[in-house]
Amino acid sequence: MLFSAFDANMKPLFLKAAISIAVLSLVFYFVPISNVYSAILGADPLWVFMGISLLILLRVLTALRMQMIARAQSLDTNSMMMMRIVFTSAFYNILAPGALAGGAVTYFKYLQQGVKPVAAVANIYVNKTIQLLVVSLPAPLFWLIDKSFSSYVIVSYGLFMTVCFSCAFALFFGRFGTLHWLESKIKRHGQSVLHRSLTALCQQISTIGQISYQTIFVLVVYSAMHSLFAALAIICFGKALNIDIGLLPILWIYSIIFLLGLLPISISNIGVREVSMIVLLAPYGVLMTEATAWSVLMYSGPLVCALIGLMLEAEHFWLSRKDHRSIDIVDRQLAVSDNEDTQ
Question: Cβ atoms within 10 A of the Cβ of 335, count?
Fold first, then answer.
């Protein structure tokens, strides 16, 4: 039974790995890997450093957003704890790639910090949902502006986007009473451990959903800055290769790449991102070799963040072992003193 469960979990991973390898093979069939390697070797290190720095700041913003949500949950956390969770999750995401696996890693890091399972799931759900809304809804707006549509069309979509975000936030976070309705439905189906956990999750999310409009605004600003920093990082990596593309096209192209990364069709969006950048950047005069080198160079940011996470995790284990040694020494001293007293 254990082996069958293992096989069931490994099959989707092997399928996604096969898709990533097949797509990459197709890319490097048309784009010689030696040309990509030469382009990356000639990259300007200053622009690469700036791109990596922006991706690090992006994760700091994510930690601040998670801490704001945790404060609404009345969790005993702080910003430094959240940064540790974000960066160590970045390290483990390299080992267990994919959006779903990444959420599972973040969940287990929450548990290590003493956060209860239901509260951890609620925090991840709210954080990811807000980020998804802020990334996806403005993408058509950036595309309309980039393609020079009329101001009437742009303003109309801007109003539509605002209404969509308000309705989606109210729907997903229970302001319309949707979570109370879902909670009552769950209770009718039983009182098992799973049913009680789902009910508690609905209550947690509903509590977060009642945050003030000021807090919602700050969360949206943090999420918007997340997208902006990601787009600016992409531009920096492009400038490192002497490719100059404006901010507007990168903003909507990043949104598409982000959304494709959520689909369970590849490992860490490998292969899919390369093809996406080749297709989406072609109208702006970016050659296939340049787009591929650009995409590969962008992996340096997550790798550096993973390295930071590795150092934080190593520090955590070292301190834990040090604490255990101190406890063992104290226990031995107490045992010796007890023996001396009895003698």
Answer: 10
